[in-house]
Amino acid sequence: MLRELRDFGGAFRDLERHVDRSLARLGAPGLHELRICGGVLVCEVEQALSQPDGVGAARLVLGEASGQLSKGGGERAGDCRRGPARRGGRALPESRRELAEGEVPKTHSPTIRGRLRGLFRLNYARRRGNEHEGGRLGVQVETVRSVEVPTRIVHGLGALGRLRELAAELGMSRPLLVTDRGVEAAGLTAPALEQLPHAVVFADVFPNPDVELVGRASAVYLEEGCDGLVALGGGSPIDTAKAVGVEVVHGGSILDYEYDHTPITNRIPPLVAIPTTAGTGSEVTLWSVITDHERQIKFNVGGTPLIGAHVALVDPELMLGLPPAVTAATGMDALSHGVECFTCDYHQPFNDAVALQAIELVGRWLRVAVNDGSNVEARTHMAHAALLGGMSYGTESAGAAHAMSQSAGGVHDCPHGALTARVLGPVCEYNMIAAPERYARIAVALGVKADAVAGIEELYRLTDDVGIPTMEQLGFSENEIPMLARIAYEDPQSIGNPREVDVVGYEEIYRNAFSRGKR
Ligand SMILES: NC(=O)c1ccc[n+]([C@@H]2O[C@H](COP(=O)([O-])OP(=O)(O)OC[C@H]3O[C@@H](n4cnc5c(N)ncnc54)[C@H](O)[C@@H]3O)[C@@H](O)[C@H]2O)c1
Ligand SMILES: [Fe+2]
Questions:
Q1: Which ligand has its closest atom nearest to the C-alpha of 393?
Q2: Which of 290, 319, 348 is the last residue of a domain?
Q3: What pLDDT band is residue 145 in, cutting at 50, 70 and 90?
Q4: In the list 66, 127, 129, 453, which could disulfide-bond 433, CB 3.0-4.6 Å?
Q5: Could you tell me if 289 and 435 lie in one domain?
Q6: What is the CATH number of the domain that holds 354?
Q7: What is the pLDDT of residues 288-340, one digit of tens each?
């Protein structure tokens, strides 16, 4: 498809007329505009949209037929089949009005209303997706938005030297230091402990931390009478510490606090997050990702500043010994946060700014960091890329690549960054037609021309250059595709994806992901 779009040419006016006639034949709304943006042909149809009260303005990107027009004749390939709407962008059929009326009862508290709206948005988007069998749909995004960053960021070479002072400022006298054996073996725990003489060490964290581990660490926190948390490591120790924080101030199991279940109402104890990988950005995100073996999924906790670290202490020196494979996987994770948050329906200017900068830094410095781990400049830029990628999340979710990697990550234990990287290119290829201008800007940030296709090709090149393993090497087999597609569809991070993606769509993306990386 990429090549087809690139070669696309021909008489534009004729094509416009042809598309308009084809839409009329299908009983679809009239053609609003046919344009090429970001190297992609976009066909926008006229469409009215009712707006549910209390939820705010809605954006509907419906009926883009880009990429589905064959080069010569301009025939549609059948993707965007239209419903019974009349031509000319006039009134919506009653059935759609009913959908819009699924508004949240005003009797609930603002917090509960916010959560109900989230569920409503998912159902709304999905029902519309079903209705149109593959049309590209936006989700309901509230008119009034917020940017919430509860974390003070202290960064620079040697920043670890500030730990004592920062812990004291936060009133910690007996923190729980949450880390893992790999970080300990890399010699990073000792300098931290020098500054925290009364800390209790919990070094049992493993990649993709699970419910049981969090419970065990919380028990240590309570038994030892700790009064704060210091997380030292990659996303796994930092997420564990956040989850411990939630458990110790609320009681119960972290399972109870899965997003959209029991709300988090209390601030976690003081937390200093010290990343030793440059990837997840968990030091500044409002999320903790925990594995539930029983359901074979990873679930999200958070979406509220109450779970954010109090301080992110970012010292690139701690990353100098990170092995190339971990550098590559985690760096691609940072890239995926930038790309998904920049293109998802929830994007907003603040997040756009940090997302683009994260993408640019990864595009420029990841290869350098993988090839020469001791390059301090590359490590510093990658540390910032991860931080900015994490900030681009905000309180919302990412998109289809994370829906896939988080759901599949509960099936086979593999590095989150590598798995996300493996599906990121195919997701972008699938999504591109829904947000071509945005993908063109990503291309520029990656250092190639302002063309969505060129940007995705560069993303594939980068994935290969840094040696991201194939799907099989990550432990998956092609006969799992139907199951993987189904659980990805169930993952709430599908919601903000710029293009509606159903189980069939996920299967297509997975097939593409399996075919990549093999030489
Ligand atoms: N909270 C969020 O917002 C968020 C976002 C994305 C991913 N995640 C989650 O984060 C986890 C992944 O975190 P990660 O990718 O940072 O990996 P990780 O924390 O699991 O660490 C991977 C490996 O690298 C080793 N390591 C870490 N730092 C090292 C160093 N400086 N030198 C040598 N070895 C080092 C660790 O010992 C471990 O074996 C996953 O569970 C993922 O789902 C969370
Ligand atoms: Fe991620």
A1: 1
A2: 319
A3: confident
A4: 66
A5: no
A6: 1.20.1090.10
A7: 999 999 998 889 999 999 999 999 999 999 999 999 999 999 999 999 999 99
289 lines ligand 1 (CB under 6 A): yes
Q: What backbone torsions phi and psi does residue 353 show, to the nearest 5 degrees?
A: -60, -50
Say what the pLDDT of residue 392 is: 93
Going along 100-227, which residue ranges are E strands?
152-155, 176-180, 200-205
Do the Cβ atoms of 192 and 230 come closer than 8 Å? yes
Per DSSP, the three-state class of 237 is helix
Name the residue with the closest Cα to ligand 1, atom 40: 208
> What value, to the nearest 5°, has the Cα angle with vertex 347 and ends 342 and 351?
70
pLDDT in the model for residue 74: 26
Does residue 179 have its Cβ closer than 6 Å to ligand 1? no
* Ligand 1 probe mutation, 149, 289, 335, 468, most atoms within 8 A of CB: 289
Give the residue from 319, 354, 382 where a domain finishes. Answer: 319
Ligand 1 center to residue 329 CA distance, Å? 9
User: Is 133 within the bounds of a domain?
Assistant: no
Task: Assess whether 368 and 399 both reside in one domain.
Answer: yes
Same domain, 104 and 213: no
Residue nearest to atom 2 of ligand 1 (CA): 282
pLDDT of the residue at 398:
86
pTM for this predicted structure: 0.79
DSSP designation for 72: T
Q: Is the pLDDT assigned to residue 79 strictly greater than 70? A: no
How many whole angstroms separate alpha carbon 401 and alpha carbon 330?
14
Identify whether 209 is part of a domain: yes
Q: Looking at the structure, do residues 365 and 308 belong to the same domain, yes or no?
A: no
429 and 512 in contact (C-beta within 8 Å)?
A: yes
Q: Report which bound ligand comes closest to the CA of 303.
A: 1
* Residues 516 and 421 sit within 8 Å (Cβ to Cβ): no
- Give the pLDDT confidence of 368-399 residue by residue, as tens digits: 999 999 999 999 999 999 999 999 987 677 89
- Is 267 in the same domain as 342? no
For range 269-289, the mean pLDDT: 97
Q: Rounded distance, CA 345 to CA 499, Å? A: 9
pLDDT averaged over every residue in the chain = 81
* Distance from residue 331's CA to the centre of ligand 2 (Å): 10
In terms of residue numbers, what domain contains 160? 149-319
Q: Which atom of ligand 1 is nearest to the CA of 208?
A: 41
Domain check: are 367 and 478 in the same one? yes
Segment among 34-38, 362-366, 509-513 with least mean pLDDT: 34-38
Q: Please state, in angstroms and rounded to a whole number, the distance separating the CA atoms of residues 121 and 15.
A: 35
* Residue whose CA is at the smallest distance from ligand 1 atom 30: 322
Q: Is the pLDDT of residue 96 over 90?
A: no
207 lines ligand 1 (CB under 6 A): yes
Ligand nearest to the CA of 235: 1
CB 60 within 8 A of CB 49: yes
Q: How far does residue 335's CA lie from ligand 2's centre (Å)? A: 9
- Whether 92 and 226 map to the same domain: the answer is no
User: Number of structural domains, the chain?
Assistant: 3
pLDDT over 90 for what percent of the chain? 66
